[in-house]
Amino acid sequence: MPPQVTAITTILQLIISGATVVTLIYTFGKFLRAPEQTQNDRLNSLEKRVDKISERLEDGDKHFQYLDEGSTITQQCILAMMDAQISGDNIEDLKEKRNKMQEYLTKRGIK
To answer: Rounded distance, CA 96 to CA 16, Å?
Structure first.
């Protein structure tokens, strides 16, 4: 073969070899970054999940507070009715039940 063809062939082989090395380096770098990307994706999804759970817990706390306030009011009303009925029949039984309700409310410590 003529020397010019050999020189051109050698130059083309060097270009192809260089491109292959660059491609291998790029692929290897991408391979090394894959676990980090997977980790970041998982962390992002967990953060979103924690945010949703926090919102639901907040809503649940509000709901329980509402229920507790309702129970307190209901129990206070029952006590008031019991006090109103004490002057009627079955006074001792009503007093006993009122005392049990007061004891329950005191022990429970509704907040």
So the answer is: 99
pLDDT digits (tens, 9 = 90+) for 42-95: 999 999 999 999 999 999 998 898 788 778 777 877 877 777 777 766 667 677
Segments making up each domain of the chain, as ranges:
3-108
Amino acid occupying residue 29? G
Q: How far from 85 is each of 14, 73, 96, 101, CA to CA, in Å?
A: 106, 18, 13, 15
| Dihedral angle over CA of 27, 29, 35, 41, nearest 10 | -90
pTM of the model: 0.46
The helices-and-strands tally (H runs, E runs) of the chain is: 2, 0
CA-to-CA dists, residue 106 to 79, 91, 94, angstroms: 13, 22, 18
- Contacts of residue 84, Cβ cutoff 8 Å, sequence gap at least 6: none
Write the pLDDT tens digit of every residue in 36-45.
888 999 999 9
